[in-house]
């Protein structure tokens, strides 16, 4: 069982991921996890190139850390389950980079003073993949590794044609699905998920009104509509996605694998029940 980790504190997440990495790969690069977290911190805190600190309030650095923590735990469960194919050290490292950079598409250039990075919601996946390519190229990563990272990031797109992503093999594809699964579960299981839904609505609204999102559909017309539809989003979109499209890799979070309880799924149900109660109170006479 994993102990609690406060995703508001990047160092806590980093130390937890380091522990998982060391346990899985005793002969691994002892500096890699710290370096990857430092790179991501530079980007999200306005210390990289021509980019401002992240100003999207839902898709902030903590959101990235929530997904990162979930993915590391999922890959640890995969390792502990001793199922084939095994995840190599290099693929673990590339998966970590992909989740840390998967929302860099919300970052704005320093000259970009209009609105927040939320305006890029409808195009952020492609922007993230391009950002990762530029950044990792500058760090000397080979093109083949960068393409693995880009392919994994592409799996997080809501309307992505998963079959069209040019993975080299099924293991890399499965890792992309693990990343996209962690992106969904990490945020929905967060302690403040329900409280941050109005902020998520504001991001959707900004994206829909942004000139660069011409033709994009406003997902919800009001905060109340988003709240009222969140449970159906879970049951009609997320559950089929993680079970069918992503091959049920979330089960590697089960403790024990394969039939034990899943703390992420449990926390999501708790959040949804809390949301149900919030909605009931709002409509009560």
Overview of the molecule:
This protein is mainly α. The chain has one domain: 3'5'-cyclic nucleotide phosphodiesterase, catalytic domain (Catalytic domain of cyclic nucleotide phosphodiesterase 4b2b), CATH 1.10.1300.10. The chain is built from ten helices and no strands. Helix 3 crosses helix 7, helix 4 crosses helix 6 and helix 6 crosses helix 7. The longest helix is centred in the C-terminal third of the chain and has 23 residues. The N and C termini lie far apart (44 Å).
CATH architectural name? Orthogonal Bundle
Distance between the termini: 44 Å
Structural class category:
mainly alpha
**Count of distinct structural domains:** 1
Per DSSP E runs of 2 or more residues, the count of β-strands stands at 0
SSE topology string: HHHHHHHHHH
Number of helices: 10
Poorly predicted runs of 5 or more residues: 213-217
User: What is the H level of CATH, i.e. the homologous superfamily?
Assistant: 3'5'-cyclic nucleotide phosphodiesterase, catalytic domain
Kindly report the average pLDDT value: 95
- Which fold name corresponds to the CATH topology? Catalytic domain of cyclic nucleotide phosphodiesterase 4b2b
**Largest sheet features:** none
Name the helicity range. 55-70%
- Work out the strand percent: under 5%
Radius of gyration, CA atoms, in whole angstroms:
18 Å
Shape: globular
**CATH class annotation:** Mainly Alpha
């Amino acid at each position: 069982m994993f102990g609690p980790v406060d995703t508001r504190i990047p160092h806590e997440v980093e130390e937890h991921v380091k522990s998982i990495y060391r346990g899985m790969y005793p002969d691994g690069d002892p500096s890699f996890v710290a370096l990857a977290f430092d790179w991501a911190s530079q980007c999200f805190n306005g210390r990289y190139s021509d980019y401002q600190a992240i100003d999207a309030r839902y898709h902030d650095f903590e959101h990235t850390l929530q997904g990162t923590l979930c993915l590391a735990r999922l890959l640890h469960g995969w390792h502990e389950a001793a199922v084939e194919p095994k995840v190599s050290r290099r693929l673990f490292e590339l998966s970590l980079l992909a989740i840390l950079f998967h929302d860099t598409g919300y970052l704005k250039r320093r000259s970009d003073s209009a609105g927040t990075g939320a305006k890029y919601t409808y195009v952020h996946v492609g922007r993230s993949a391009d950002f990762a390519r530029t950044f990792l190229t500058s760090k000397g990563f080979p093109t083949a590794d960068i393409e693995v990272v880009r392919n994994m990031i592409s799996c997080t797109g809501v309307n992505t044609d998963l079959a069209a992503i040019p993975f080299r093999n099924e293991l890399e594809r499965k890792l992309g699905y693990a990343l996209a699964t962690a992106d969904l579960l990490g945020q929905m299981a967060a302690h403040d998920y329900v409280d941050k839904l109005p902020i998520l609505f504001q991001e959707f609204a900004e994206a829909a009104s942004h000139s660069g999102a011409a033709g994009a559909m406003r997902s919800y017309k009001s905060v109340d509509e988003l709240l009222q539809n969140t449970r159906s989003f879970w049951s009609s979109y997320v559950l089929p996605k993680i079970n069918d499209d992503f091959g049920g890799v979330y089960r590697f979070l089960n403790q024990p694998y394969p039939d034990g309880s899943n703390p992420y799924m449990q926390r999501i149900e708790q959040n949804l029940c809390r949301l149900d109660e919030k909605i009931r109170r709002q409509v009560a006479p």
